[in-house]
Amino acid sequence: MASGKIVNSYELLYKYYDACRELKGETCGPIPSSDDLKELETLVKQQEVANLGVLIDHFSKKYLEKIQETPAQIACKSFFGKEVDTVHCMTKIAQLVASWLIEIADNLGIISLKFAWREGA
After folding, report:
1. Is 76 helix (H, G, I), strand (E, B) or coil?
2. Structure confidence at residue 31 as a pLDDT band (50, 70, 90)
3. Any idea where the domains of the chain sit in the sequence?
4. Mean pLDDT over all residues of the chain?
5. From CA 119, how far away is CA 37, in angstroms rounded?
6. Residue 120, SS3?
7. How remote is the C-alpha of 72 from its chain's centroid?
8. pLDDT band at 49 (very low <50, low <70, confident <90, very high)
9. Cα–Cα separations (whole angstroms), residue 13 to 35, 37, 47, 121
10. Residue 121 predicted with pLDDT over 60
11. Which long-range contacts (CB under 8 A, 24 or more apart) does 86-94 make?
12. pLDDT for 67-78, tens place per residue?
């Protein structure tokens, strides 16, 4: 349910999930859940968070704990073509998952993404 409204390419995330399957024989997380969608809806409806950057940061921190180091390193090396700092790599993957969650919420009508820089937004 990624729409591309926030992220143009999820290739790094795909590489991470592929590395997980190759190393463990199964998918490893994080993957957005219905609980995450409910939390997002609550944050927005209660006007605790209305800024896209803050939402991405909030959920990135949550997802970062679930990212596995070795598959992340493999994915980043494949994506960037060189070794990348592990923390930076894992953070980028967490941000992709958080952005995916927000795109899902937008697609389902839970939230409505508005871009102030776009005409008519």
Report:
1. helix
2. very high
3. 10-108
4. 88
5. 28
6. coil
7. 14
8. low
9. 21, 19, 30, 29
10. no
11. 90/64, 91/60, 91/64, 92/12, 93/12, 93/13, 93/16, 93/63, 93/67, 94/30, 94/59, 94/60, 94/61, 94/63, 94/64, 94/67
12. 999 999 999 999
Name residue, tokens 């923390």. 87
Which amino acid makes up residue 62?
Answer: K
Which letter does DSSP use for residue 104 in this model? H
Helices in the chain by DSSP H: which ranges? 11-24, 34-45, 52-64, 69-80, 86-107
The residue with tokens 């970062």 is 64
Q: Pull the structure tokens for residue 3.
A: 């729409």
The more confident residue out of 96 and 117 is 96
For 86, residues 6+ apart whose C-beta sits below 8 A from its C-beta are 69, 72, 73
pLDDT at position 1, please? 55
Confidence of residue 94 (pLDDT cuts 50, 70, 90): very high
